[in-house]
Design brief:
46% of the residues lie in helices and 15% in strands. It contains 6 helices and 8 strands, in the order ααββαββββββααα. It has a 6-stranded antiparallel β-sheet. Strand 6 and strand 7 form a beta hairpin. Helix 2 crosses helix 5. It is elongated and about 75 Å long.
Length: 254
């Protein structure tokens, strides 16, 4: 019984502290609340995107011109798991069925493009940014099976090129694939490309807004106090009048 009461008091203490924090008028507490609110919103959006896409990251930004003109620098690309909303389709498979994603224009060689655009970790390396290129065909051999990939604006496939810091890229294994591109929004991708600057701007804006709100509230309270204060002359006249009335009453009693 004693332990239960102690635990109950402890829980009430935590609740009380949370309530005080939420109602506190301290500028620092207000800033912390704003930052926590932003983090909760961002976390909720991230969770929603993960549940819908089935993979992470669920959005990527195009950083190079290797997929121009079907994808451009600054495009924000929504990514889904390879087997979500249809199976992953290569160029060779899409050419037979007519399936094509991000195929408004021909590639650099003038060929109409087919199949899915995939996002993959080159050679499974997580220390470099994923590559977003078209899956050309499945290269099936006993040693290094995987997808051959190529950018629509590139002369050669990724597996025939040399990438600084990575070396020769091997055919893309299924476990290296982050997902496939579902759709893209132009320009918005510049935001995550400059995420640090954007985060600093948001936090600075919250601090300025909190300071401005507190200052306006303080000025408002000061104005009300001044308005409620009675003029000096009127205050004295009331006191004088009340004194005369008291004296008159005293005279009547006498």
């Amino acid at each position: 019984m004693v332990l239960y009461m102690k635990e109950q008091r402890r829980n009430l203490g935590v609740v009380t502290q949370v309530q005080r924090f939420l109602k506190s008028e301290d500028p620092k507490a207000g800033m912390v609340r704003d930052i926590l609110w932003v983090l909760c919103v961002v976390g909720g959006v991230a969770l929603f995107l993960f549940l819908v896409s089935g993979t992470w990251p669920a959005v990527v930004a195009v950083e190079s011109e290797s997929m121009v003109p079907n994808m451009n620098v600054g495009d924000l690309v929504f990514v889904v798991a390879p087997d979500r909303y249809g199976t992953l389709t290569s160029w060779a498979e899409g050419q037979q069925t007519g399936y094509a994603k991000f195929a408004t224009s021909a590639d650099l060689q003038g060929n109409m493009v087919y199949g899915d655009v995939i996002i993959y970790k080159p050679n499974g390396d997580t220390s470099v940014h994923p590559i977003i290129h078209r899956a050309i065909t499945w290269y099936d051999n006993t040693t290094e099976p995987g997808y051959i990939t190529k950018g629509d604006n590139n002369q050669i496939s990724d597996q025939d090129a040399y990438y600084q810091g990575i070396g020769a890229i091997q055919p893309v294994k299924k476990e290296w694939i982050v997902g496939k591109a579902l759709f893209a929004i132009p320009v918005v991708g510049y935001l995550p490309l400059h995420i640090v600057k954007f985060a600093v701007l948001i936090i600075a804006s919250l601090i300025v807004w909190e300071w401005y709100s507190r200052r306006r509230e303080a000025n408002g309270k000061g104005g009300k106090d001044t308005a409620n204060a009675a003029p000096f002359g009127k205050k004295d006249s009331k006191k004088t009048g009340s004194s005369k009335k008291s004296a008159a009453k005293s005279g009547k009693k006498r």
